[in-house]
Amino acid sequence: MTLDTEKWVGERGLLAVGVVALILAAGYLLKLSFDRGWVSPVMRCIGGAIAGSVIGALGWRLEGRYRTYGAALIGCGAAIIYLAVWAAVRQYQFLPPTSGIVALAIVSLALALIAFTLDVEAFGATAAVGAFFAPIFLSPGRGNANILLIYLAVMAGTMGLVAAKRRWRLAALVVASSYFGLGWTIGAVATGGATASLLLLYGVAGGTAGLLLGLRERWWEVRALSFWGGWALMASASETRAGAALLIGAFVMSAPLWWHGIRSPSIWPRRTTRFYRGAEWSLGEAAYFFVTPLFLAWAIRLQAPARFDADRGLAAALVGAGYALTGYVRPRPAFALVGAAALGVAAWRHWPGLPAVWALIVLTCIWAGLDHILHRTDGRWYALGTFAAALLHLLGHDAALRSGTDAAFGGGWALALWAVAAVAAALASGLWRPAGRPDDIRATRSALWFTAGALLLFGVTGEIRRFFVQHSAAPALAGGLAVSAWWLLFATALVVLGFRRGVRPVRQFGLAVAGLAGLKVLAVDLRSLDALYRVASVFILGLASLLVAYLYHRQARGRAPAG
After folding, report:
1. What's 120's DSSP letter?
2. DSSP per residue, 20-38
3. Interior angle at CA 482, CA 510 and CA 393, nearest 5
4. Per residue in 425-463, is it b (16+ CB within 10 Å) or e — as a string?
């Protein structure tokens, strides 16, 4: 056995054995005295409390010279006192449960004070367990729920303050888990549960305090318990009370995350390590920040459910306006992102059809334009997200509901399509403010140009077919020829534009469209079109091919060296 091992066994191992043995001896003594009738129950419990106090006092005296030894004796004394009080209430039943709870609370607070003075976290955690579970151990299933909630709040405030001052993570975890777990059981489930006002106040106070501590110390478990526990208790209280107090509570619960967002320069987590300081986001903090607006919208809706159900986007619009204003008064990207997303959701939910698309493309232009006006770079991403929502709404929801009588080219759906294509082209032309690596900028702009071109190509194709269905006696023949002509015309225009602007991807896209048009003529038109329609289709293909080939020959000659 090495010297270090011998020292550990002698100092800590035997100390633990001695402490456990004393606690067991106290328990056996109480049982033996009860079985044989040596002393009255009152004297047994009083004697146990006195013995615990003496052992604790001895540990206090020895702590200065032998820290571990003295601390262990203090903990042993507290455990014996806990055992004596429990026996007085549950075993012998001469002490009322309320008095026993008060006694254990006093012992727990004294132990917490000792823990704070000696800076021993184990005492703080033990004191928290004793204080919170005293009502469960001494008075299970009985008692006034309101009184018990007040008791838990007082104990949590005291124990939580000690844990926060000393930065005791384990003690804070015990406080948070006990506070919300027992609070939910007593306040929401117990017979004759607590009043809604007190339960709401209990949830808001604990959730806000726990979030502040969890955000400050970066304790993810305290933060998680406080966030979800606080909102869960508020939701339980809202079943019977959904007035202004609920809305105020929602704002108070959101304040810690707002404070963290205001002092944070970015949105997404920059580090993955568990321990760091500063204003960076962790993954959990980002998640809670972006979930909070949903709870805010829920609290706002409960103020006037009929009004907000009739105008489904109003709650999201109110939340979005507040976040967007906060995010744009000063550069706060987290708030601006939530504001842009919430306003997009409001537009989607408020208008049932094409007006939502127009609102979304207006928002797209606003976010992209504000980047130029305010010299920012984050609005371009809000613009892309909002534009994608507009495109999805138009091509998914609205296209499925488009009636057969809606006019081709000039109908409501077609006008919205041209607007979306124009916005895509405007973003690619410079409305989307470039920032970052050149390769990323080029890729994004190419994607926008491709989107604008695809919308124009296939949008006009669909409108041509619709036009001939509505106005021609032979829609398949005339429409097929017109589509082939349009594709070849579009391909030629792209090649010309590509040469004029010196943009190779545009020319390549034009050649790809020309290839698709050629395949359509050879595989579809020659088989399905009749007489002059077939001749016209092949003639247009030949004419367009010759024109494109001429452009390439002319470009090659212009680059050839002179003489």
Report:
1. -
2. HHHHHHHHHHHHHHHHHT-
3. 70
4. bbbbeebbbeeeeeeeeeebbeebbebbbebbbebbbbb
Report how far residue 441's alpha carbon sits from residue 404's, in angstroms, rounded to the nearest whole number: 40
At residue 473, φ and ψ (nearest 5 deg) are: -80, -25
3-state secondary structure of 268: coil
Place of tokens 């550990």: 8
Name residue 418's amino acid.
Answer: W
Distance, CA of 527 to CA of 467 (rounded, Å): 23
- The CA-based angle 12-14-15, given to 5 degrees, is 60
Q: Which amino acid is at 249?
A: G
Phi, psi of 235 (to 5 degrees): -65, -40
Q: How many residues does the chain have?
A: 563
Query: Helices 220-238 and 283-301, interaxial angle, to 10°?
Result: 10
Report the C-alpha dihedral over residues 15, 19, 25, 26, rounded to 10 degrees: 160
Residue 272, phi then psi, degrees to nearest 5: -115, -5
Number of domains the chain contains: 1
pLDDT tier at 60, thresholds 50, 70, 90: low
**Per-position DSSP letters for 123-173, written without gaps between them:** HHHHHHHHHHHHHHHHSTT-S-HHHHHHHHHHHHHHHHHHHHHHT-HHHHH
Inside any domain, residue 15: no
Domain contains 62: no
Q: Using only C-alpha atoms, what is the Rg of the chain?
A: 37
Q: What average pLDDT is seen over the chain?
A: 76
The tokens describing 375, both together, are 């010299």
HSE-up of 55 (CA within 13 Å, CB side)? 23
In a domain? residue 509: yes
Contact between 232 and 225 under an 8 Å Cβ cutoff? The reply is: no
CA atoms within 13 A on the CB side of 440: 8
Torsions phi, psi of 378, nearest 5?
-90, -25
Residue 508 inside a domain? The answer is yes
Domain boundaries, position 535: 472-558
Task: Give the pLDDT mean for 137-141.
Answer: 55
More confident site: 113 or 56: 113
Distance CA 365, CA 432 (A): 9
Neighbours of 420 (CB within 10 A): 25
Secondary structure of residue 240 in the 3-state scheme = coil
Supply 521's token pair.
């003529």
Q: What's residue 271's pLDDT?
A: 47
Position 320, amino acid: G
